[in-house]
Amino acid sequence: MRVLLVEDERKVASFIAKGLREEGMAVDHVSDGKSALAQLDVYEYDLLVTDIMMLGMSGIELIREIRMRKAGIPILALTAKDSVDDKVLGLDTGADDYMTKPFVFAELLARIRALMRRPSALAEPLKAGDLIMDPVAHVVTRAGEKVDLTQKEYALLEFLLSNKGRVLSRTSIIESVWDMHFDSDTNLVDVLVSYLRGKIDRGFDVKLIHSVRGVGYVLEDRG
Question: Among 103, 130, 196, 207, which one is most buried in terms of CB atoms within 10 A?
Answer without folding.
Answer: 196
